[in-house]
Design brief:
Blueprint: H1 2-37, H2 47-52, H3 66-70, E1 81-87, E2 90-96, E3 102-106, H4 118-128, E4 134-140, E5 157-162, E6 169-173, E7 179-183, H5 185-191, H6 195-198, H7 210-237, H8 255-280, H9 296-300, H10 313-322, E8 329-335, E9 338-344, E10 350-356, E11 359-363, H11 368-374, E12 383-389, E13 414-419, E14 426-430, E15 436-440, H12 442-456, H13 460-465, H14 467-500
Antiparallel strand pairs: 1-2, 1-8, 2-3, 4-5, 5-6, 6-7, 8-9, 9-10, 10-11, 12-13, 13-14, 14-15
Helix pairs in contact: 1-7, 1-14, 7-8, 8-12, 8-14
Length: 512
Amino acid sequence: MTTFWSRFKRAVYLVHRWAGIAACVLMTLWFISGVVMLFVGYPKFTPWERLAALPALETPGCCISVDKALSQADDPASVQEIVLTSIAGIPHYKLRQSNGRYQVVNAISGQSAKPADAQHAMRAARVFIPGADAAYLGQIHEDTWTHSGSLNIHRPLHRVQLNDKEQTLLYVSSSTGEVVMDAPRFQRAWNYVGAWLHWLYVFRSHPVDPLWSWTVIALSATGVLAALTGTLAGLWRWRFGSPYKSGSRSPYRGGYLRWHHLSGLMFAAITCTWIFSGLMSMNPVGIFSPQERPNLSAYRGGTPGTAHLPLDTSEALAMLSSQGFHASEIEWRAIGGIPYLLARDAANTTRLIMRSGPVYALLAQWPDTLLLQAAPRLMDAHMVSHQRIDHYDSQYYSRATQSMYGAAERRLPALRVDFDDAEKTSVYLDLYSGDVELSSSQSQRTGRWLFNFLHSWDIPPMLQAGTTRNIALILLSLGGLVLCLTGVKIGYARLRTRFFKPQSKGNSRRKC
């Protein structure tokens, strides 16, 4: 038993030494970039940012009917989405086909629009930020700021550099001609020491990139191994009883070894937690993927291509305008087979238009009863309960814009419905739009606690703490940084001694 224990401890020391050497530089960069990400996030195009750049759809002269727009589609019955919006300052219908591609129809002339070229991209950029000089930088399929899978339908992307105050880099869809991403210079610059560095995007070349995924998983696992074995080694070396002859409970009297030992003991828990939760963020081998996802097609009960609200577009705009609502975008939808219009203004405030008997009604929210009639279609399981929620809970909550979830529309009140499927799925419905805003299975909830909570402390009470939370995260990150920087110094000294300087037989090796 004594021999086994000695060998086990020796193995732990060796694993920590070499795993630490392999991971200490990367872990240092993770702590630095993590602090940056508290304040500057990876570029994203939020719904409210996109809508703020759109003009209101003017009632006079706008627009051709939705039926006329559908007549321009290759297969009107297969159209899954109809959106009236402004593209380069001109109203257009966007028709999403069953294959996922968009067909765009000019809402003034009724003509199908051609794929966006460089000239159109420049015009869209100038409309997005008026008065700024623009320079066309060409087409790209993907670059540093456009890894998001949501952009796949818009690739290749036109790049336009604006000479505005923010030196904004814009990306314009070749499919629809819309601006689909903006990246100001300030955000781009900080991201090189923030999210781009933290997520190791230097290794990523595609929205779905298995090589990048497994690289991050392997490096994170190495970091976890270094942190766990370091914690064990640090505890074994600490004298909880009588101190060493020096009077210290650490065997190291000074220098980087002592700082590494002490900071390791003080910040071992948070270091292990953050590195492990970072590994969990990659959902290795799909362990947090749900067995079944909500059936959105069944929930809608129809597509706008086959059944939509028979209300003329100009009448809908006039109806909204009469109530002081100036729509920038209108979408034709259905839920539970009930067709309706969803209108959004420049502030991302929404209104609903649906039939109420012989007339049309303008509503701010869906009636709970109507959504509850459609909700059972979401899952192939019995709906066991429902609840209208007016406060955020541990699953449904909003995040600051710089967060990786900062573009999610988590509005209140919402409707939560629970199902008796194998994973006890809960689905959160946005009462303002009827959208499924969040689906949470048991495996997803496990992943949420092991990643989101452990990595960024994102339960509502902690998020509400605001500045206090940020200060705590920064101080803990600084402690972890000290641990990793001293590890870099010790690792460098170990490698230099082992591989670059010959050792005399009388030299003793210190364990670290």
